[in-house]
């Protein structure tokens, strides 16, 4: 399975962001890509006031362009995330996934909204970080896995990576690769980004493909970057720096099966001890 993770700069113009992705798709043609990933809020500034302004309904203009990209280039597209609104006016941080025919095969609404207040630490070179997605976003309620020609995959979004039970549940539902569109920041990224992805890969015994937006020092929210792909053994297979770029990685999902046979962690989980329903790997 060949994965392309596009780490793009984000501007305040939605169509410009979409055009940039179209251009990158054209550069990827002929390289045997099976799955393409974008970062979190790839099409709009990562600012709480911007989310309602940029929000569209499922099936809207941005959704249609994403579906066309998947269909025209014959790839599975994990289209980062975008602000999505429903009939009741709620706004979600939503990840859509499309198959090679452009059909939607998954919709995941971020369950754990990003809530943080971190003071600056000049000695450590750490800037102040305060952000509250709940000011304009509504939390999703479901953990999502979905089926592809390569088997079952899971998906979550950025701050979700701090909740390992969600990764465990995706693995127990049969996922061997978990997609994580994200936009970590400069306060926590240098310390937690690598650590969390390696830890979640180890505990879920899944590949983790984490795709960030690129760093823009002039934005109000500055992304950490460093899109990466981690093996079920916890090794970082490939990684970008903070600049715009595309990370192309070949993986064999059978490696997850081999590791689970050698180290049967998932089959030994005793969820009933915590009062949770017993689940088995499917």
> Beta fraction of the residues?
25-35%
Distance between the termini: 21 Å
Q: Name the helix and strand elements from N-terminus to C-terminus, one letter apiece.
A: EHEHHEEEEEEEEHEHEEEEH
Helix tally?
Answer: 6
**Major sheet details:** 7 strands, mixed
What would you call the shape?
Answer: globular
As a whole number of angstroms, the C-alpha radius of gyration is 18 Å
Structural class: alpha/beta
Note poorly predicted spans.
278-282
Rounded mean pLDDT is: 92
**Helical amount among residues, as a percent range?**
10-25%
Helix and strand arrangement:
Layout: E1 2-7, H1 14-28, E2 35-37, H2 50-54, H3 61-73, E3 76-78, E4 82-85, E5 91-98, E6 104-109, E7 115-118, E8 129-132, E9 144-148, E10 151-155, H4 164-172, E11 177-182, H5 189-204, E12 207-212, E13 228-230, E14 236-239, E15 245-250, H6 254-262
Parallel strand pairs: 1-2, 2-3, 10-11, 11-12
Antiparallel strand pairs: 1-15, 3-5, 4-5, 5-6, 7-8, 9-10, 12-13, 13-14
Question: How would you describe this structure to a colleague?
Answer:
With 282 residues, the chain is of the alpha/beta class. It is built from six helices and 15 strands. It has helices spanning 14-28, 50-54, 61-73, 164-172, 189-204, 254-262; strands at 2-7, 35-37, 76-78, 82-85, 91-98, 104-109, 115-118, 129-132, 144-148, 151-155, 177-182, 207-212, 228-230, 236-239, 245-250. The strands form three sheets. Strands 1, 2, 3, 4, 5, 6 and 15 form a seven-stranded mixed β-sheet that branches. It has a six-stranded mixed β-sheet with strand order 9-10-11-12-13-14, covered by helices on one side. Strands 7-8 form a two-stranded antiparallel sheet. A hairpin with a 5-residue loop joins strand 13 and strand 14. It starts with a strand and ends in a 20-residue tail after the last helix.
